Amino acid sequence: MRWQRGGAEADRLARLRATWLGERKWSKSEFPSGRAAAPVLSRRLAESMGEGLAAAGSLVPVEIDAAAKGDEYFLFVVEAVVDCLDLRRSSKPKKIDGEVKKAVFRPEALPSHLPAFRLPQFPGAVQWNGWAADLLADLTGDQIERRLIWSEDPAARPHPDPWGI
């Protein structure tokens, strides 16, 4: 999203227009997010995540063309940008978008109290803290895949391509 890269208040969204793709009879996802930069949450998810979301950003209403009753979604605009990447031990951010394939965080700088944050080196992606990713997975069942990016636990194995499909 342009606002995340440039930070200009004029580029910030007040609402987002969207259209459902696919067959109406298909089940609807509660986390229909196609990009790491723009997590979209159903009303149920947003309410279940609680006030913690407000600590990291804001919810922008998503207006869905020809929406059915109950189709209420929000774009979670993560405003918290935290410089917690260990630049010496992490892979070099890609020039085109800042993607960091192998992230190593500085534990003392990691905002573990926030559900999510963005990195100044990779502002186009939302980094979810483990507890928030676990909560999202618990609330959505098999609708989302958690991919470990980093852990202080040496036995934990980060995903080899956390941003790939």
UniProtKB/TrEMBL annotation:
It comes from the Bacteria. It comes from Streptomyces spinosisporus. This is Uncharacterized protein.
